[in-house]
Specification:
This protein is mainly alpha-helical and about 140 residues long. Helix content is about 65%, strand content about 10%. A hairpin with a 2-residue loop joins β1 (about 5-10) and β2 (about 15-20). α4 (about 45-70) crosses α5. It starts with a helix and ends in a 9-residue tail after the last helix.
Length: about 140
Amino acid sequence: MEIQRKYYEKISGGIRTLKRNGWFKRNLSPLGLYYHLCNYGEDWFKPFIYSVFVVVEFSIIYAMQTYLAEPLPDKSIQYLVDSFAKNLFAFFQIESKEYKTHIVRILAVPLLGTLIISLRRKLERRFRHQHPSMQCA
């Protein structure tokens, strides 16, 4: 996949040559995004960090919007906690009826998908390469 992301094959006059893809195709194509998001499903830590970042960042943004709409200094922590709970529910696709959480729901799909794929690959590798004395009968 790394070769497909970086190069493309050009045929001219019956001669095949490899040409380097442009920056946009290398980094912002679906294959490039998959590479940067989770290293082709091999790294589980990056999608986890991105997921935490999305939930926390949007919680802060939504809490600030609520606070600016009705500034009550004694309820600022409550705004943040409520916003965090709403975004966490939206991230895991649990019932959320607010239009503001649609961005979080959309971002959650590729993040959760790559996180699950990465964890599955890691666990498969761990159990496949287990020492014979530790395997179940």
